[in-house]
Each structure stands twice: as C-alpha cells, then as structure tokens.
Amino acid sequence: MVGQVVLVIAALGIAIPTLWVFVASFKDKSEFYGSPWTWPKGLHWQNYADAFVDAKLGQYFGTSVLVTVMSMAMVLVIALPCSYVLARFDFPGKKILKLAVQAGLFINVNYIVVPIFLMLVDADKLLYNIMPNGFFVNNVFILALVYASTSLPFTIFLLQDFFASIPKDYEEAAMIDGASQTRIMTRIFFPMAMPAISMSMLFNFLTYWNDYIISMTLMTGNNRTVQVGLLNLMQTQKAATNYGRLYAGMVIVMVPVLIFYAVVQKKLLETSTMGGIK
C-alpha cells in the first residue's frame, strides 16, 4: 500500500508540471499576468508558430533529429556485434577489452568536452589549406560521432550481459540446422535481445536529445541543436515577457521523447524467452 502511494505521488509530480506546461503553451501573453492556474481562454496556436519559425526552433529541431538518428545508427552498428562477440566467444585479450569497456562507464563526457574540442580544432588546422571553413567543428556528423563513441561503453556493457544470459541451447540448435555464426547472431540473438536493445536506445536517445554542453561547444550558428535553441528562446522570451512562446518551445522539445518512449515501451516489457527450440 505504501509503495502504491509513493508511485501515485511520483506520477503526479511528473504529470502535473507536464500538463501545466502544455496548458500554458496555449495562453496569450496577457493571460500570464493573472493566476498561473487558470485555463487559457482559447487555443493560441500562434505561440507554436512563433517558436518554431521566428525563434528558429524548427531548424534546431531538424538538426537534433538528424544528429540523434545518426548517433543511434552508429551505436547499433558497432555495439551489437561487439557485445555479441564479447559475450559468446573466448579469445586472447577478451578480459582486457571487457575491462576497457567497464572503465569507459566511469568517464563523463562533459568533463572531457574541452579536450575533444581542442583536438577537433587542431584537426581543422591541418586541413586549413584544403578546407578553409573547417570540417571537424560545426559538423553534424562529427557531433553524432562524438555522441556515439561516448555512449558505446554503456551500450556494449548492457547488451553484453544480456547476450551472455541467453542459453547455449539456442545457439547449438541453430548450428545443428547449419546456420552460420552471422546468421545465428542476426536471426536469433538480435531479435531475442530486443528488450535490452530498446532499453539501451531509450537511454541513448535521452542522452543525445537532452544534451546541451557538447552541442553548444562543438556546434555554432544555425547548426545548433534544439536544447541550445530552447535556452536561447528562454532568454529571449523572458526579456520580452512572452511566456507563451517559451512554453510552446518546451512542448516541442518534449513531444519526441514521449513519442519515442511510446514506441519502445512494449519492447521494454518483453522477456528474453522469444521463440523456442525445436
């Protein structure tokens, strides 16, 4: 009973502020001078149009979507086979590799963002004669590469433990049927690991989408991500006391997170006993 009460209180603590932001995003500028708990007199959709177009949040939104999709694709392509090999095979140096992956879990990328930035600046200096505008700084692909590389330790660590927990019977049955290691990995283990893959992708998505420090450091001008654009919008609208645009910008940033969670939540609840052995 106590646990249920705690869960209800926690849920209300999340739902009420979220609902309040959503409602406030439809208010006119003059409605913010009264009680903050009053409902809007009408649906002021212009707040969303102003935030999306005038504040360039739409452009920043597109940059964040592109960077997030590329980062998640890179992580999946690298982490899935790496974690499978570490979990199912024995080879020289395996313990060292596993130790290196575990050590990477303790590195906070926010603490090394300045060295990363300086390395990219030095790399651009080497290419100055060929590419005067630079390549490594203010590049969405490089930002996605930084995101993916810094999230690999967590992703590999999570998937590796899941692959190791799958019984060998599945693998032996597939080998008896003549399946190759590649086919066993892609057709048996990857589908069975969908709950773990979905969980890792959810955490990675939240990390990429909500990042501010790395994107602010590595990106400039119109290539900034939505979190940096939201901060700029907050500063501008606070000075102009136009809070409707500010809350509309917050809703725009929250919607992809809610949609992505709704897509992967079913996979998060699935068990690892998909399929069977014939």
UniProtKB/TrEMBL annotation:
Protein topology in the membrane: Multi-pass membrane protein
Pfam families: BPD_transp_1
Transmembrane spans: 5-26, 65-87, 99-120, 140-159, 188-209, 246-264
Transport is among the record's keywords: yes
Subcellular location field: Cell membrane
Record's GO cellular component terms: plasma membrane
Single GO BP term: transmembrane transport
Keywords: Cell membrane, Membrane, Transmembrane, Transmembrane helix, Transport
Domain ABC transmembrane type-1: 61-264
Name of protein: Carbohydrate ABC transporter permease
Species per Swiss-Prot/TrEMBL record: Bifidobacterium longum subsp. infantis
